[in-house]
Amino acid sequence: MRDSFLFALDAVLSNRRRALLTVAIIAVGVASLVGIQTAVNVLADRVAGSFGKLGAGLFTVQACEDAMPIDGRQAAAFVDACDFAEAVTRWNIRSRKAVVRSGGVATDPVVRIVAADAGYVPCQGVRLAAGRNITAREVEQHEPVVLIGDQIRRKLFGDATALGEEVSSEGMRWRVVGVLERQGALFGTGLDGSLLCPIEAAAPSCAVSVRIKALGGDAAALTAAGRLMSAIRRLPPSAEPDFEIVQADSTQATLYSLRAKL
Fold it and tell me: What is the DSSP string of 122-166?
């Protein structure tokens, strides 16, 4: 044993540079693996926390990529007939990279403008830091009122509440009636960098989001949503749906699956 140890020590001392390089490579590899696993764990936990804020399962019904869009009339019909949800809303994205201005101050071109009805805020499970939600009457009459995220408020108005102030973007002007509570963003700017205005009744393309009590999506609710949208779009019983139902917690499940494999 002693001779073997002395032989190994002599080999290491004779090839110091090679030995140090080998140790460094192993150390970097182990550190990289630990860093990747830590990053995935943190990301998965943040996703869990973000979806936990919703307080319930959330899923969205949207047209398939190559199908005719869900128009405003169909989305409104779904919202009116949906009797299995805790909250339901119709919405669309008017812009993903808008600039919002007020009093000579402008945001970066990263604001997401969401047009939606009064159910969007409760459906997303968010709260207001100041002011109030838009109302059904304001949506029906397409009043120039708006909710803004905390990031927009801080950029344009500093520490002020922003309530009653006027903001503009893409040729539109709105009066701020509410400010969303700061959420923190997992990807991009999230709701903190969003502006929420009333949706037009004749919107050419919409999605519908549904919030239910069962976290992760209740099978009966998903089935009911599929049947309702199929009826509204007048699809034959044997036809494949030209829409898809996307569950909000699918990203969370994917990340936890990835973490388990590391």
Answer: HHHT--EEEE-PPPHHHHHTT-SEEEE-HHHHHHHHTTS--TT-E
The structure's pTM equals 0.74
Q: Among candidates 217, 190, 199, which has minimal Cα distance to 90?
A: 199
Q: Find the distance separating the first CA and the last CA of the chain, reported in whole Å.
A: 38
Per-residue pLDDT reduced to its tens digit, 160-213:
999 999 999 999 999 999 999 998 755 444 799 999 999 999 999 999 999 997
Type of residue at 9? L
Q: Which helix (H) or strand (E) holds 224?
A: helix 219-232
232's enclosing H/E stretch is: helix 219-232
Amino acid (1-letter code) at residue 89: T
Residue whose token pair is 């749906």: 241
H or E segment to which residue 72 belongs: helix 72-81
Tokens representing residue 190 in the block: 């999230």
The whole-number pLDDT of residue 188 equals 46
Task: Identify the residue whose tokens are 């805020």.
Answer: 121
Q: How far apart are CA 133 and CA 176, in angstroms?
A: 10
